[in-house]
Amino acid sequence: MNTLPKWVEYGLLPAVNLAVAFLVAGLVVLMIGENPLEAVRLIVYGAFGYGEGIGFTLYYATNFIFTGLAVAVAFHASQFNIGGEGQAYVGGLGAGLVCLALDRYLSWWTILPFAMLGGALFGCVWGAIPGWLQARRGAHVVITTIMFNYIAASMMSYLIVNHLKVQGDASVQSRTFEADARLPHLEGLMGLFGQDIGGAPLNIMFLIALVAAVLVWVLIWRTKLGYEIRVFGANPDAARYAGISATRIIVTVMALSGALAGLMALNPVMGEQNRIFLDIPGGAGFVGIAVALMGRAHPVGIVLAALLFGVLYQGGAELAFDMPKISRDMVVLIQGLAILFAGALEYMFRPAMVRIFARKKGGAAWT
Amino acid sequence: MDLSLFHDLLQVLDATLRISAPLLLAALAGVFSERAGIFDIGLEGKLLVSAFAAAAVAAVTGSVWLGLGSGILASVALALVHGFACITHRGNQIVSGVAINFIASGITALLGQAWFSQGGRTPQLTGSARFEDITLPFAEAIAAVPVIGPIYADVLSGHKLLVYVAFLAAPLTWWVLYRTRFGMRLRAVGENPAAVDTAGISVAWMRYRAVICTGILCGLAGAYLSTAQNAGFIREMSAGKGYIALAAMIFAKWRPIPTMFACLLFGLLDALAIRYQGFEFPLIGTIPSQATAVLPYVLTVILLAGFIGRAVAPKAGGVPYVKER
């Protein structure tokens, strides 16, 4: 394949793909009979116009950073983990159980490490099983992770309804954690920037998500394991000749992927709802797919793409409020279009780009 | 024989046929696509757009046939998007399938709310905007015959047209795939596209025709959900049926007739779960509804893992074809 200048490959091409996705979404808005530019204005205002909006935008972005990283880690070993939703859901159980067990004895900063361990461990197991089935039994990881999403949903609803639910309470959820198992919100930090986030549940998990992004970068590009993962992803046969065990790589990336997805659950479980509830991830596991594709599986790209989807989620809520004809499902549509154009159709505009940029610079000079 | 138990059994079997029909149509849709080497995890999305288009058009025009046609058109359109991405642009088939499911989920809810303002529902369908039950010939005449009569009159008779279409589609799919030139080529494109290419047949055009077949069958399945089984569209009404159909197809190892039995099995599980909800069984007590709901998925994972037989996908599945020069 012809090489393109880096800024075209990693900047212009994804931007063009994304622009086309938004263009199609804009046409749908026109079809509904609303003004797309007005819609964009409302979204941007909803997401950035006031402190609480910013708080919510970053809160949603936190979820998507974790799930985006989860999908990306597996991508590097050319494994497609569609099971982030299920892994995050089960991770929520792990983290929630820790909270339910410890919230009457310890304070938040001692509970947090255990909760992270619980969430990561449960998610890790839920990801590693399909990984193992792929590596040792040849069961396609895409299909098994889809199945595991449904299995997780049924299992969680059984556990919550039959075991965790408070007897005599109408709502289907566990008891609310004591104040000590709730993560501190970032009012103070945001205050430094002169923003009052009000009731937004932006919490310390946002900072942990950024740390996780850095750690994933270190892992993939600065460690031996990361190198092996990338070699395996680029060419499994070559990796095997080099003595890299396929089973070890596949199970490891799926376990890591599951653990990252599992960590995501801490954000809603301990940062917002403070209980174990139905549908903990709320679709964030799936958004992770779009985020990882748009971010080209690089942590910097993922943080930016997660921020964009945070904007869409928060701004979309605002939009639905001001333009009742456009419901929040607009975001799901944009998510689908982004996956289509940035993922499945990523090569559509490539030949044109090659024609423009490769000729100008004499082609092979860019490597 | 205990008469009430016999009556229960008939009811469960009747429900099984009703529940299996859309699964079967969608699973056969999957067979066409995957046998031609195009993985399709977007069955769910196609079901959903078809269900929406069928209900929306039927509601506005009052004609279930126009609804059915629109459902099929919508589903074929999405199938062609999948084809455009995977065949023409050699995109990742899984990614494209995921995209299609989200697009379908988003656009149906969005347009449903924008056009009908009922929280994403379409108006209730009545009269000619819905498929009617069909009474098979002589059903009343032989209903009185013991055993056979009730089976014919209560289980086999009295379904919507699309149920019969679904169960005819299974042998028809078998015939097309295994007894026609089109079918042989379709399967060849899924196993060894280079050989088909060498024979002077266009791999891309073959695969496009396969995804169009997929679109048509998914269209029928979706229209069944909203204009036959239910009286209108509800948000997310496909509720994972596309994935269960996918599971059934894999469970049946991509073969049409076994696919029918897999769908009947999954339909039976569902029918039993509905009939015996909260029922106290001796020794085991009540079976939680979640346990039966999850069974198709668990069975598929076990099968895929090779613990009961081996599921071997078409060889060229998921691989875009690059013509040699």
Q: What is the global morphology of chain B?
A: globular
Q: Report the biggest beta sheet of chain A as strand number plus sense, adding barrel if it closes.
A: none
Number of helices of chain B: 13
Helix content of chain A: over 70%
Q: How would you classify the quaternary structure?
A: heterodimer
Structural class of chain A: mainly alpha
**Mean residue pLDDT of chain B:** 90
- Terminal CA distance of chain B reads 71 Å
Within CATH, the superfamily of chain B carries the name ABC transporter involved in vitamin B12 uptake, BtuC
Notable characteristics:
heterodimer; A: 367 residues; mainly alpha; 16 helices; disordered C terminus; B: 325 residues; ABC transporter involved in vitamin B12 uptake, BtuC; two-stranded antiparallel ribbon; 13 helices; 2 strands; 1% strand
Structure description:
- The complex is a heterodimer of chains A (367) and B (325).
- Residues 363-367 of chain A have low confidence and may be disordered.
- Helices cover 73% and strands 0% of the residues of chain A.
- Chain A is an all-alpha fold and 367 residues long.
- Chain A has a domain at 61-296.
- Chain A has 16 helices and no strands.
- In chain A, helix 4 runs antiparallel to helix 5 and helix 4 (84-102) packs across helix 13.
- Chain A is globular.
- The longest helix of chain B has 33 residues, at 3-35.
- In chain B, helix 1 packs across helix 6 (148-156), helix 1 crosses helix 7 (161-179) and helix 3 (64-88) runs antiparallel to helix 4.
- The N and C termini of chain B lie far apart (71 Å).
- Chain B has 13 helices and two strands.
- With 325 residues, chain B is mostly helical.
- Helices cover 69% and strands 1% of the residues of chain B.
- Chain B has a single domain (3-131, 145-304), classed as ABC transporter involved in vitamin B12 uptake, BtuC.
- A two-stranded antiparallel ribbon of chain B has the order 1-2.
- The interface between A and B is large, with 47 and 48 residues.
